Amino acid sequence: KNQVEQSPQSLIILEGKNCTLQCNYTVSPFSNLRWYKQDTGRGPVSLTIMTFSENTKSNGRYTATLDADTKQSSLHITASQLSDSASYICVVRGDNYGQNFVFGPGTRLSVLP
Amino acid sequence: DAEITQSPRHKITETGRQVTLACHQTWNHNNMFWYRQDLGHGLRLIHYSYGVHDTNKGEVSDGYSVSRSNTEDLPLTLESAASSQTSVYFCASSVGGTDNEQFFGPGTRLTVL
Question: Are B100 and B1 in contact (CB under 8 A)?
């Protein structure tokens, strides 16, 4: 069964600190992996997308990594800000046909002053 | 600016009533999607459309229907609302292609009593 798991379920850090969120997936065949940020009460917004051949992709203070062999991805947030408080969702697309997107349950990040 | 909107933002209804949630996008995207988001679950696909008069069932389509009469709108109808359909509903749209970034609306919180 195609699944996407994320850890930790929730995380609390102090402003200015770094953190890393994990995503493990069993989706096969693999097309791409995307990280979304979802603020409370809002829809998800895309941060990065990576295909099979990409290992790292950055978007400002957000850096995503992908290991397609072990089917793992991580999202690293550098110098966290209060505005980073949100849920971060890992989404894996299974193939190039149809709408085979599998969404992870998300990691809830709280950044405290 | 182009955008995607949903209405209403909050809705309370009774079991057995028919409910329609609206979704409107001004990007002229061909693809539109409806998801539901529940605690502990990732977003799950209800229905999607690749263009006018095209509709397809997603993972959790039972009890829901959609119709696409124009490019901009994809209303979601709950034929006979059930308490299990209490959830937050997100509409999304995309241009299409392998990248397939989806742009999400702000969500509708539906409570079925």
Answer: no
List, for residues B59-93, the tens digit of each pLDDT value: 899 999 999 999 999 999 999 999 999 999 999 99
Omega prior to B8 cis, within 30 of 0:
yes
pLDDT, mean over chain B: 93
Region A84-110 average pLDDT: 87
- Is the Cβ pair B107, A31 closer than 8 Å? no
Among candidates B40, B48, B107 on the partner chain, residue whose Cβ is nearest the Cβ of A43: B107
CA separation (Å) from B90 to A29, A75, B79, B85? 26, 24, 18, 13
Distance from CA of B17 to the nearest CA of A (A): 25
CB A107 within 8 A of CB A20: no
> CB–CB of B61/B51 below 8 Å?
no
Minimal Cβ distance to A104: which of B42, B56, B92: B42
- The mean pLDDT value of chain A amounts to 92
Helix or strand or coil: residue B86?
Answer: coil
CA B100/CA B94 separation, integer angstroms: 6
Mean pLDDT of A56-83: 96
User: Alpha-carbon distance B70 to B76, whole Å?
Assistant: 14
Among the listed residues B62, B88, B42, the one whose alpha carbon sits nearest the alpha carbon of residue A3: B42
The DSSP symbol for A82 reads G
Q: What is the largest CA-CA distance in chain B?
A: 41
